[in-house]
Write a structure and sequence with these properties.
Distance between the termini: 24 Å
Strand order of the largest sheet: 1-2
Shape: globular
Strand content: under 5%
Number of helices: 21
Order of helices and strands: HHHHHHHHHHHHHHHHHHEEHHH
Largest sheet: 2 strands, antiparallel
Radius of gyration: 25 Å
Number of strands: 2
Length: 472
C-alpha cells in the first residue's frame, strides 16, 4: 500500500507523464502493425515470466486449437486457385470418376494428386470442407506444440514457451487454417520427424530415428513436394558434423535416410500408378516452371499468367536464360524484392480476399474488413521482423557457445536452405508457412538471451539497492 502511495505522488506522476509523452513521439511515427507486434511480444514475454504454467504443452495445444477452430467457423473462406482444383479432384475420386487425370493441371503436375487422394480419404468420413479445416486446426495446434518441444532442446523452458506462444498468435499461420492448404499436414510430419531426431527424451537407436524420419519425409513429400529442403538440410548437417569418431555412423545415417526416403516415395508412386489414381505417377512434368516464374523481374518472382502465353512460343530454358543473364544490378534487385515478398509478405489476405467486396458475414452483421486485414498483415510482418532479430541473436549465441546442442544445425539449415531455394524459384507470401516454424525455434534461443540479460540487470539493481540500504 505504501508503494502505491509513493507511485501516486505528484512528482512521480509528472515523470511518468513525461515518459509517456516522450514515448508517444516514436510510436506515432511507427506503423500501427509494428506497435501491435511489439506489444504482443512484450505481453507474451511478461505473461510467461510472471506465471508458472503446468502441463504447458496441453495448455498450448488447447488454446491454439480453440482459437483456430473459432477462426475456421467465423471465416468461411471458399477454396480458390489450386485448392479448388485439388478439392474438385478429391470429390471425383469419391465419386469413382477419373476426369481430373486428363486436365492440363494434373498432366503437368501429377505430384499434386497425392494430396487430393489424402483429402478424398478424409472426406469419405465427413464430406464437408469444414471437416478438412478442423483437421487443419488440429495439425496447426500440434505444430505449435512442436515449436515448444523442439525449442526446449536448445533454449530454456521460459524462452521456449514464449517462442511457442508468439507462433501461436502469429497472424498468418493463425488465420491460414481457413485455407485448404496442403502445408499443414506436410509441415507437421516434417517437424515431428525433426523432433524425433533431435529429442534426447526419445530413447531409440539413432539409425532407427533416421529411418523413421525418412518415412515421414516421404509421406510429407507425397502430400506437398517440399521435403527436399529438410532432406538436404539434414544431409548437410550430417556432412558438416563429420569427425573421425562418427564418420561411419554419419555416413550410414545419410545412406539410411536417402534410401528410405526415395524407396518409400517410389513405393507410393508405384501404388498410385498401378491403381489408376495417378497413371503418370507422382512426378513433376514441368520442373522448369518454378524457375520461369522465379526469375520473372516484372512480377518480382511471383506467378504470372503471361508466362504461360510466352511458353507457347519460347522454350522454358530460353526464357529462364533471358531473365538470368541480365545486368547484375537487376538480378540483385530481383532477389531483394523476392526476399521482401517471401520473408515479410504477410499472407493473411489469403483467408479474407473473398470477403473484400461484399464484406464478412458475422453474427447477423456484415463486417468491412479491408483495413483490419491490412493491419493484421502489417502486424504479422513486424512480428516476423522481430523474430529475425531474435533468430540472429540466437545464432550468435550458438556460435559463441560451442557446448550448445549441435543438432540446432538441423533447424538452422532449414532456414538457410529455404533462403537459398526461394531466391531461385517462384515466391508467394504463403510459402513461408513451413520455415516460420524453424524461425521461431531459433528465435527461442535469442529470447533466452534477452531473459538472461534482463535477470542479470535486475540482480545488479537489487544488489546496488541492498548495498545502499546497508550503508545507510
Amino acid at each position: 500500500m505504501n508503494k502505491i502511495r509513493e507511485y501516486l505522488k505528484i512528482k512521480n506522476l509528472w515523470v511518468l507523464l513525461f515518459a509517456v509523452c516522450f514515448i508517444s513521439v516514436p510510436l506515432a511515427l511507427m506503423p500501427k502493425g509494428s506497435v501491435l507486434a511489439i506489444a504482443l511480444f512484450a505481453a507474451v514475454l511478461f505473461f510467461v515470466n510472471k506465471f508458472e504454467i503446468g502441463h504447458f504443452s496441453v495448455f498450448l495445444f488447447l488454446i491454439a486449437l480453440a482459437l483456430r477452430i473459432g477462426v475456421v467457423i467465423a471465416v468461411p473462406t471458399p477454396p480458390v486457385s489450386d485448392f479448388e482444383v485439388l478439392l474438385g479432384a478429391s470429390q471425383q475420386m469419391i465419386a469413382g470418376k477419373g476426369d481430373y487425370i486428363n486436365t492440363s493441371y494434373f498432366q503437368a503436375w501429377p505430384y499434386q494428386i497425392g494430396f487430393a487422394f489424402f483429402q478424398s480419404l478424409l472426406l469419405r468420413i465427413w464430406n464437408d470442407v469444414l471437416f478438412l479445416k478442423i483437421l487443419n486446426s488440429v495439425l496447426a495446434a500440434a505444430t505449435c506444440v512442436l515449436v515448444y518441444k523442439i525449442a526446449c532442446e536448445f533454449a530454456s523452458d521460459k524462452a521456449s514457451q514464449c517462442a511457442a506462444l508468439i507462433y501461436c498468435f502469429l497472424p498468418f499461420p493463425f488465420f491460414y487454417v481457413t485455407v485448404l492448404s496442403n502445408q499443414f499436414v506436410s509441415s507437421f510430419l516434417i517437424y515431428l520427424g525433426l523432433y524425433i531426431l533431435i529429442s534426447e527424451k526419445i530413447k531409440i537407436n539413432e539409425h532407427l530415428k533416421y529411418l523413421i524420419f525418412g518415412v515421414l519425409l516421404a509421406i510429407a513429400n507425397l502430400l506437398r513436394p517440399e521435403s527436399i529442403i529438410p532432406l538436404f538440410a539434414t544431409v548437410l548437417f550430417l556432412v558438416i558434423s563429420l569427425k573421425k569418431d562418427n564418420l561411419k555412423r554419419n555416413l550410414l545415417n545419410i545412406l539410411i535416410l536417402l534410401v528410405v526416403y526415395y524407396g518409400t516415395f517410389k513405393l507410393f508412386e508405384f501404388l498410385f500408378a498401378v491403381t489408376g489414381v495417378s497413371p503418370l505417377g507422382l512426378g513433376n512434368n514441368d520442373p522448369l516452371w518454378k524457375f520461369v516464374a522465379g526469375f520473372n523481374h516484372s512480377t518480382h518472382g511471383q506467378y504470372s499468367g503471361n508466362d504461360w502465353e510466352l511458353l507457347k512460343t519460347t522454350s522454358a530454358m530460353d526464357l529462364i536464360k533471358s531473365r538470368v543473364f541480365v545486368p547484375i544490378s537487376e538480378l540483385i534487385s530481383l532477389f531483394i524484392e523476392k526476399m521482401k515478398i517471401f520473408w515479410c509478405g504477410g499472407g493473411v489476405s489469403w483467408s479474407f480476399t473473398a470477403f473484400y467486396k461484399e464484406g464478412l458475414p458475422f453474427l447477423g452483421a456484415t463486417l468491412r474488413i479491408v483495413d483490419d486485414v491490412a493491419l493484421a498483415e502489417l502486424t504479422s510482418k513486424w512480428l516476423m521482423v522481430i523474430s529475425y532479430f531474435l533468430l540472429a541473436l540466437g545464432a550468435i549465441k550458438c556460435f559463441k557457445n560451442r557446448c550448445l546442442n549441435s543438432k540446432v544445425l538441423l533447424i538452422i539449415n532449414q532456414v538457410f536452405v529455404t533462403f537459398g531455394v526461394y531466391l531461385l524459384i517462384e515466391v508467394q507470401p504463403r510459402y513461408i508457412y513451413h520455415v516460420q516454424v524453424s524461425t521461431l525455434i531459433i528465435a527461442a534461443i535469442g529470447i533466452g538471451v534477452i531473459i538472461d540479460g534482463a535477470k542479470k540487470i535486475l540482480d545488479k539493481i537489487k544488489k546496488t539497492d541492498n548495498s545502499k540500504k546497508e550503508s545507510e
